[in-house]
Amino acid sequence: MREKLEALKQQALSELGAIGSSRDLEAWRIRYLGKKSELNQVLRGLAGLSIEERRSVGALANSVKELLTQAGEEKANAIRELELAAEVAGKTVDISLPGRPYPPGHIHPITQTIEEMCEIFASMGFGVIEGPEVEWDYYNFEALNIPAEHPARDSMSTFWLDAPPGGKGKQLLRTHTTAVTARTLERLRPPIRAVEPGRLFRYEASDATHVPMFHQIDGIAVDRGITMADLKGTLYEFARRFFGAERKVRFRVDYFPFVEPGVEMAIDCMVCKGSGCRICKNSGWIEILGAGMTHPDVLRRAGIDPEEYTSFAFGIGVERPHMLRYGVDDIRLYFSSDLRFLAQF
After folding, report:
1. What would the CATH number be for the domain defined by 109-342?
2. Torsions phi, psi of 179, nearest 5?
3. Over 70: is that where the pLDDT of 45 sits?
4. This model's pTM is above 0.85
5. Which among 247, 238, 220 has a CA at the least distance from the CA of 120?
6. Of 29, 191, 267, 299, which one is least surrounded by beta carbons within 10 A?
7. What are the tens digits of pLDDT across the range 199-210?
8. Three state DSSP letters for 281-330
9. Residue 41 phi/psi, 5° resolution?
10. 1 confidence band (pLDDT: 50, 70, 90)
11. Residue-range domain boundaries for the chain
């Protein structure tokens, strides 16, 4: 039995040395180390030997098996290196070829819209001012004629925060960028022309037309002799340049606490051209912003004499105009990080 194992070992090692491919190596492994190999047959026949012979022959058989296993692994590594070297040698690399292109990134459509709107107003003499997203209750409400008991607060579901002592009331995540207007009036002296873009936050559920965080651009102009005609001319020019020169504009009376009188501006529906459809709710018009002549108390509270200066203000959402321009029917798509949608703009 011992002679048979020695002969089997020498034969296996001799054949292993001549092997040059992975396929032949696998056939060798099955023949000498597989379940039906001669070596396993020897191990199965140990039961017929005496205890002493079983011990010595079993130890030899196991050592042969370990030796062949290790030799097979070393051979496999050597064959793998040879095959890899042959594969590399058979290929050439043209280093003058351009690399694989990565898909180019671009600015988010909401950021694009903010920049476009700001450029339109900048061409009309407006500067761009930003303010804090964590705001004092005073600037978000009180300075804009919205005291604690005012019903307008009910339409602005608010994220309230724990405010540090010594400030102007409570703190919150601002519900409109008109809060920046209040700061602008307090900080600057007339003449003032500014737009204030930024994010705002409302504590409400998400659906196709509402999200808890969205964007807005507010504007303010303060000077001697400013009239409603200046407001209408400014907003008409904005609508013409953003939505197209053929757009029609309509102003109707509306109420906002911080302006008097207040108006809402609508454009004729770009889908039905004013004849009525689902998009415009069969009215032929789509409201896009609110505006008005700044309330004298708002100016007075900021230290500006309303007897000497007059002012107009407006506020426009950013997502809605972009949705109208491109026919987007769900505002949540802008915040989904879905490149199939975002890459279209």
Report:
1. 3.30.930.10
2. -60, -35
3. no
4. no
5. 238
6. 191
7. 999 888 888 888
8. CCCCEEEEEEEEEECHHHHHHCCCCCCCCEEEEEEEECHHHHHHHHCCCC
9. -65, -40
10. low
11. 2-89, 109-342
